[in-house]
Structure to design on (273 residues):
């Protein structure tokens, strides 16, 4: 489908992203900024209208069958750890991650999700919340827009993000599990807080918050300093989350290494009709 009326797709009455200078627009921006400041995440519930959400789930269900699945064992820092430190140090604790991913170049041009990602007012809305003078869509043919697919037994380990922020759109939750848990501001640029990180990875629950991630919600999350994970999936219903990649710098792309482990390839594909 080709969008002709965006207010039928997104709740522009509740989130007037085409008119952010209006009193209602400024109020939304203020609320989202307050949430980010307080706990490093902002959830915009009902951002996508129910009818449009059904379309998104239908097209995502068709795409998920082709998701590349990979199992990885790694630490919370997305690196190789430090052999000079004890095995039970936070940097050396590892967990297994298992999930599937559909890359940007696998979305057909007619995809509603792709149109939402490529609609400028959505991108400008995110930039306004983050108080950035300009943001850009990620200039990577695979990583710019992804569909995260998690099925029974899948798990996303505790980790910190390498990017400053992540934007996601919740499409469908599983029957059980699949909860997004995080500990806001667990570390900082000057304080790694290794003991607290170690405690959480080992099962400690101090400071752990669960984000509802209700289907149809747009979520802005600052995961560089917040430890976070997705709990194991249970049941026959897959967890579907769209990841919309924006960047404060123009032209940034991912590496071939990341492409290989995320998508199982480095060569791009022509968009589907």
């Amino acid at each position: 489908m080709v969008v002709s009326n965006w207010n039928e797709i997104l709740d522009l009455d509740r989130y007037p992203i085409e008119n952010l200078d209006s009193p209602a627009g400024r109020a939304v921006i203020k609320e989202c900024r307050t949430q980010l400041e307080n706990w490093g995440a902002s959830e915009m519930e009902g951002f996508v209208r129910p009818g449009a959400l059904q379309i998104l789930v239908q097209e995502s269900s068709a795409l998920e069958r082709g998701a590349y699945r990979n199992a990885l064992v790694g630490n919370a820092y997305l690196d190789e750890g430090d052999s000079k430190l004890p095995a039970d140090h936070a940097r050396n604790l590892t967990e297994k991650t298992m999930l599937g991913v559909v890359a940007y170049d696998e979305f057909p041009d007619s995809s509603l999700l792709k149109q939402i990602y490529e609609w400028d007012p959505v991108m400008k809305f995110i930039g306004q919340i983050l108080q950035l003078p300009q943001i850009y869509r990620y200039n990577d043919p695979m990583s710019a827009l992804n569909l995260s697919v998690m099925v029974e037994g899948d798990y996303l380990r505790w980790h910190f993000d390498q990017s400053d922020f992540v934007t996601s759109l919740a499409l469908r939750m599983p029957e059980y599990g699949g909860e997004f848990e995080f500990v806001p501001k667990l570390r900082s640029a000057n304080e790694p807080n290794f003991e607290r990180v170690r405690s959480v990875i080992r099962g400690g629950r101090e400071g752990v918050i669960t984000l509802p991630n209700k289907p149809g919600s747009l979520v802005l999350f600052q995961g560089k300093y917040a430890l976070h994970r997705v709990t194991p999936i249970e049941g026959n219903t897959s967890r579907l989350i769209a990841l919309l990649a924006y960047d404060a710098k123009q032209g940034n792309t991912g590496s071939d290494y990341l492409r290989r482990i995320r998508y199982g390839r480095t060569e791009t594909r022509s968009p589907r009709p």
